[in-house]
Amino acid sequence: MPDHVHEGIIAENMDDLSNYKRDSSSIFVRFGQAPNCKMGPIFNMHYGSAVKKDLKSIRTNIIYLGNNPVERQLCRKAEDYRWNYLAYANNDHPFSEPLIIRKASAEMKKAIKEIKGTQDQQKPLSRTILKRLFRPLSHKERLQLIDFIVCCYSVIDYTFAESLFGSHDNMIQSMKYNTGSEYDIKEVFVGRNDLCYEQITNWLKRTLLFEDVHDVFALSKEDRGDLLLRIYRETNIHPKLIAKYLRLSIIQK
């Protein structure tokens, strides 16, 4: 999701889960941020978890994970949202044209080779690497490379998830007719949808001419505070949501 992460994790015990969250969060903070960021902590609270043991609760949880972007009005169907990864269950290029490597540009071939090599070494792709790889590519190639990276690095056990519903189609149909639920973890939402984050992104690109909106984090806290007020005046988006986007401490109040 734009401002938080949902995961369905298979863990033997709570220690394994805790270690996974520690390591994955550390990798995200270290490699997933724009260079020269001038901001405080990336995560504002400890992760929440809820154990699901029986098959019914596991199925309900999977439906909830898939449907979250639908509930927040980011898409009409769960499989239309790229970042819940449903569309990748039976398609390696759901959001781009087929990638034929022998016909790809030299820049694309170099990018694919580097991504494969990095993944083979079990290393993450840092934002610095990604920015360099994507810069010379066309829009079509960028979409293809995103799909390639998602498939290359995926650790999702689609077979297990689908087996709980009988088939992939049954799983998707279940998401269409049920919203799922998660009552064991308290979530606080501001507003009824998350479309505001796309509005903020478009505002930054249009008004400040940012090619990469992550460059906003190179601004000082004071400058981002001034920017929050300007965005609020021109868009009327709730200040707490703008603060989340700009990673300002107002979200802790």
Question: Can you put this structure into words, describing what you see?
Answer:
Helix 2 (55-71) packs across helix 7 and helix 9 (221-235) runs antiparallel to helix 10. The protein is mainly α. The protein folds into two domains: 14-177, no CATH class; 195-252, no CATH class. The chain contains ten helices and no strands.
List the helices and strands and how they pair.
Layout: H1 14-31, H2 55-71, H3 106-120, H4 127-134, H5 139-153, H6 158-163, H7 168-177, H8 195-207, H9 221-235, H10 239-246
Helix pairs in contact: 2-7, 3-5, 9-10
Helix and strand element order: HHHHHHHHHH
Beta-strand proportion: under 5%
Please compute the radius of gyration using only Cα atoms: 19 Å
Binned, the helix content reads: 40-55%
Number of domains: 2
Determine the number of helices (DSSP H or I, runs of at least 4 residues). Answer: 10
- Using the alpha-carbon principal axes, give the shape: globular
Q: Output the structural class.
A: mainly alpha
The averaged pLDDT comes out at 88
Q: First CA to last CA: what distance?
A: 22 Å
Number of strands: 0
Unreliably modeled segments: none
Biggest sheet, in brief? none
Characteristic terms for this protein:
mainly alpha, 0% strand, 253 residues
Provide a concise account of the structure shown:
With 253 residues, the chain is an all-alpha fold. It has helices at residues 14-31, 55-71, 106-120, 127-134, 139-153, 158-163, 168-177, 195-207, 221-235, 239-246. It has two domains: 14-177, no CATH class; 195-252, no CATH class.
